[in-house]
Batch of 2 targets.
Target 1
Amino acid sequence: MKKINIGLLGLGNIGTGVYEIIQTNGPKINLSAEKELHIKKILVNNLNKERKVSVSPEVLTTSIDELLKDQEIDIIVELLGGIHPAYEYMKEALISKKHVVTANKAVIATHGRELMKIAIDNNVALRYEASVGGGIPIINTLSKPLSINQFEELMGIVNGTTNYILTQMTDFGLEYDEVLKTAQEKGFAEADPSSDVEGEDAAYKLSILISTAFGLEVSPDNIPREGITKITKDDIEYASQFGYKIKLLATAKKTGNHLEFHVHPTLIPDSHPLASVSNEFNALFLKGNAVDDLMLYGKGAGPLPTGSAVIGDIVEISKIIGTNFDPTISFPENIDQLQLSGEGTSKYYIHFRVEDKPGALGFISTAFGNNGISIETVMQRSRGEKYVPVIYILHNCKREQLNKTFEEITKDETVKEIRSILRVEEF
Ligand code: HSE
């Protein structure tokens, strides 16, 4: 059997997972790849660090050149994370005519098209299945079996940290800060959780999904986004009374020839398949004009699930090494001629703290009416306090209409606070 030499960049969480799977499932992997896979070199920061896997010392190196200049290495597997130097290393590897596999959502979201072009120019493959949804085969599924569809919408729970936090808040009636602390202790949230909880991680993944499904390039910085840090247990409780769960959704939806896209905490009906995706699990729900509704579900992070996706890519590349087959999963063309249009319209959930006095609800409702916003439901929870929670569910409107209404409302002291503004999805 022909030998395929692999150079691994990084032996952290995912690198360790990859190494472990190759050790335990080696014969099965080689059979699938139709080649014998061999990890020849691993780039690490510290040669003497204690590791969960036993690796012979001569495999480890701190010099990137030992991998990039090694003519025998066929595939570079980048698992460093972060944009620099991962981007530069991948670029150099492709220029050196080495195939590249990566789990790096930040690099693919920001430099994916450029790297893909370099890969094509050098007749090598660039694969990035693990960059979205960890172990769930999303990229491959969108690019291959589902690629004959015109996609109408994608809605993803693509961040396990925030899904874990929201699930725990929902199941145990806890506030965000309490759950974050436990999530950090249990390893479900990073010491600095900002990229996850502020929606940046989900925006990277949405950018890759939009490229893969719609053939449109949208920088993660241009994706309207909001995280989960302001969600309260009261919002979760009120949403539940209306029959909804709150999830951080990465959404891309076609309306006419426009594509709306955003990352927002969103109320979804209990009957929606995404409502039952709990804790650290991820899922992508999509609608294609041929396949109709479909959901991909699984673990979005973790050394073994992510390692599984990485090795899947290595195997696909190994199979075609030495053949004339075009190895590239390219970003498709925007054949539907869609235009990017940002946030678009939505139903909204608004939570006000309002002075409990005659005319208060009339005042707010009139302001909505004045700005062309139609009200679907109103709920007031009065417990005899001076200020009480009032929840509105609004029919579809634009964010600008809402902002104008809020400007009008906050000129008066009836409304003490606009506590939450959340999107609502129907099913
Ligand atoms: N930080 C991500 C999450 C995992 O919480 O889902 C890696 O993409």
Target 2
Amino acid sequence: MSDRRFMLYDTMSKSMRELVPQEPGHLKFYSCGPTVYSYAHIGNFRTFLTADLVVRTAEALGWQVSYVSNITDVGHLTEDSLADAEGEDKMARALQSKEGERFANVWDLADHYADAFVEDWRRLNLRDPSVRPKATQHMREQIVAVQELIAKGHAYETPTGVYFNVASFADYGKLSGNRDQDDLMRAVRDVVQDDNKRHPADFALWKKDEKHLMQWFSPWGWGFPGWHIECSVMAMRYLGETLDLHAGGEDLRFPHHECEIAQSEALTGKPFSKLWIHTRFLQVEGEKMAKSKGNFFTVRDLVEGKNADPLALRYALISVPYGKPYNFTMQTLRDASSNVERFRLCEEKVAAALSATRPGDDAIGPELDALYDEALAAMLNDLNTSVALAKALEGTRVILREAELSGACADSAQRFLDRINALLGIVRHESDAPASNSPKVDEARIEALLAERAAAKAGKDFARADGIRDQLAAEGIELRDSPEGTTWRLKGVV
Ligand code: AMP
Ligand code: ZN
């Protein structure tokens, strides 16, 4: 493949830019993780999958990737998305909700949702980050960073907390475009104002609160950190002062990422990240997801509640490039399910052909290699997943088209499936975590039933043979008859 430049739409410069690691062949990448006050929804995962695809594409180029994705387990307030930190702590509020009643305390709640999040992450076959830091485990560094910002004249203390002084940082607004007084006033409207702040857009680095459910002792008394400071601190702690790439959902551009930039660059005097990418929000059935509209889905709602195949859900969520609006529907998931099924059929066909080792030429290798190159080229073009998936599917057509695969063809097909899986993660699970929609299967019992069915068929007892098929189907196990015999699999349809 000739052009192996990794191009991304950089939301800072609003242009396509090449991702060039500062250290050749070693990408340093930070992607904002979830706030763990409830189960992550499929929109969140659209954003996390974007990061996953960056990692996979970089690895396909042979790069080493240092990938940090955090867990926010303190400090994200209900009004943080509007502007400055106001409102209630999201986790403290979750504890007081109906679902929160089952937790002993807020720490227990955070642990539960953080574990559930990692479980969903693995179900959808996302690569584990090199580090998954938690805000609560980096409190000391956050306090030190706030002290330094005060010492450098970028922050000040008030009776309610410590605030970043946006007027002290000339570049404030360079990411979001909220640069002048009017822009900032518009962006921070509707927010309860703290009269002690010098400017309404100044944002909290530390909140004083002796009654807060999660609190730490600091030079400013008991309290907790503002949401933004954790990402600056954890990104720089693990990846250095300038990242190659920083990612998140589109809502994070302002205020979260704008504030991360201000804090980090005020501390170091260096650019915080070379490039920025933001994932467009996922809508469901044409509307913003909302519990009240019945279109709000967590990963577990679909995987456990509707028996969706996790790989099909992954396929569906990446099927539209991250920078484009995406309206997710149940039909998208059904289509993804049948596409994922094609890869499974290929896997079976290739496994059978590899053990048969039939003689013959490699009639499909060059075609498959070209399709893989085209899939990779699409990913290098701002993660164009719709083209990459189309090329991958074309590959399945090539493999399934052959009546029989020679040993040489099977080798090529296997290489194609392995490389497509490494790039897109849609062929098979790579992590050890179980695909959690799998019913508990007793393989020995199924094999015994298959033997009994074969015997019934041989004895022309078709009623018994069909009975066994139906019994297994009711348990979520599908049988497939072929001249080589009968195989079984878990059904993964919505
Ligand atoms: P949160 O847990 O609210 O901090 O969100 C975690 C990540 O999911 C952030 O990067 C958000 O920008 C992103 N996100 C939230 N809702 C959506 C959505 N509907 N579509 C895509 N990304 C989203
Ligand atoms: Zn962040």
